[in-house]
Amino acid sequence: FGLDCPRRLIGDKAYDSDPLDAELAALGVEMIAPNRKNRKQKTQDGRPLRRYKRRWKVERTIAWLQSFRRVRTRDERKAQNFLGFVQLTCILILLRRIFG
Questions:
Q1: What dihedral do alpha carbons 42, 48, 52, 57 form, nearest 10°?
Q2: What is the pLDDT of residue 76?
Q3: What are the beta bridge partners of residue 9?
Q4: Domain residues of the chain, as ranges?
């Protein structure tokens, strides 16, 4: 792909699978996801899951971005134009949080 892979990937219980763990490990990526209830052999010891607890910040930010129609529908054809609108949206969100 030519893209830099992240060192860690955080997901929910749906991402807890041995084939996915093996594929990501081959790429040098650590998968952080809570174990499913029916998992016989536990793969997480709890320490990396501290990062999972902060995952709500990312989901909340994406929800805020989705409240802007132009970002939600991605009307722009060029990625750089879309990135500009995402950045503008982040600025608007920040100003609303600061100045109420």
A1: 180
A2: 85
A3: 31
A4: 8-48, 55-99
